[in-house]
Amino acid sequence: MKTGTTEPIGAATPQIRGTTPAQAVETFLALLQDRLPSWLRLLHDLRPGHGDVTGNLRPVALAGIHYYTEIQAAALPAFVSPILTVRFRQAMRESELGPEGEVLPLAAYLAGEQELGRVRADVHPESSARLLLAGCFRHAYYEIFTGADSEPSRPEAAEAIVRELRLDP
Question: What pTM was computed for the model?
Answer without folding.
Answer: 0.79
